[in-house]
């Protein structure tokens, strides 16, 4: 029984040691923006580029004070091509206000490894710059999961012992 508990703990730790961690502070901003390890914000006509390994998802929010015909938009690019996230046209024509998508999550069909570029494009003007925010959830340390796994196995063993 003790061996199986240790085996589960080590297997959990080794699997989770390979969990993807996206550190946005390592990304390069070309234009106007700020980055920290878990949150980045870019405005105007700006890109944010970096490399990722095994990324499965990210959260994003597009906010704009602009209106049609100034169809600002946000996007990301991978080795497979460019994906549009949102635009002024998607949010509707708001004059004198601010539109936002709210926080959304993009999930890759398969874990992505390679260069990832986020961008926001200010179309035809610079007076009302749009903003794209990118956020990543912190990934717990593998030891945390291993400890949780050992605890769960211990609870199951105690329950089994009590049933007998």
TrEMBL record:
InterPro entries: Ice-binding_C. Residues 138-161 form the Ice-binding protein C-terminal domain. It holds the Pfam family PEP-CTERM. It comes from the Bacteria. Keywords: Signal. The keyword Signal applies. Residues 1-19 form the signal peptide. This is PEP-CTERM sorting domain-containing protein. It comes from Deefgea tanakiae.
């Amino acid at each position: 029984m003790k061996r199986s508990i240790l085996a589960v703990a080590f297997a959990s730790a080794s699997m989770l040691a390979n969990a993807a961690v996206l550190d946005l502070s390592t990304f390069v901003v070309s234009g106007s923006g700020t980055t920290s390890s878990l949150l980045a914000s870019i405005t105007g006509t700006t890109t944010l580029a970096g490399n990722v390994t095994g990324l499965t998802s990210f959260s994003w929010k597009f906010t704009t004070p602009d209106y049609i015909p100034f169809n600002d938009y946000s996007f990301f690019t991978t080795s497979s091509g460019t994906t549009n996230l949102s635009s002024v046209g998607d949010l509707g024509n708001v004059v004198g206000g601010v539109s936002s998508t709210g926080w959304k999550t993009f999930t890759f069909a398969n874990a992505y490894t390679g260069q990832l570029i986020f961008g926001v494009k200010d179309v035809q003007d610079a007076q009302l710059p749009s903003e794209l925010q990118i956020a990543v959830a912190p990934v717990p340390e593998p030891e945390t999961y291993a400890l949780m796994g050992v605890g769960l196995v211990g609870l199951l063993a105690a329950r089994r012992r009590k049933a007998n």
